[in-house]
Design a protein that fits this description.
81 residues, mainly alpha, 0% strand, 3 helices
Length: 81
């Protein structure tokens, strides 16, 4: 495993220490690894959302009315119940 040194302002270092003292993390490395994992997950989910939004824009306008959409959703819900 690679080693990385990080400089933090005092307030941030105190925050990290509080997270360790709370028992959520055993040391600063665990905390940083968790932050990186969460950031990776966030970016992955964000990319999926962006791609879905692009696909939606590229698909054009719907020809269905709001009433048609609601009816379809209600029918699907009844089928699931």
């Amino acid at each position: 495993m690679a080693t990385m040194n990080v400089s933090l302002p005092d307030l941030m270092r105190e925050w990290v220490d509080q997270q360790i003292q709370s028992g959520h993390y055993s040391n600063a490395s665990d905390y940083v690894r968790d932050l990186i994992r969460r950031d990776q997950e966030y970016l992955d989910k964000r990319e999926i959302l962006v791609q879905a939004l692009i696909a939606g824009e590229e698909s054009g306008k719907s020809t269905q009315t709001i009433e048609d959409i609601w009816a379809s959703l209600k029918a699907r819900h009844r089928a699931d119940v």
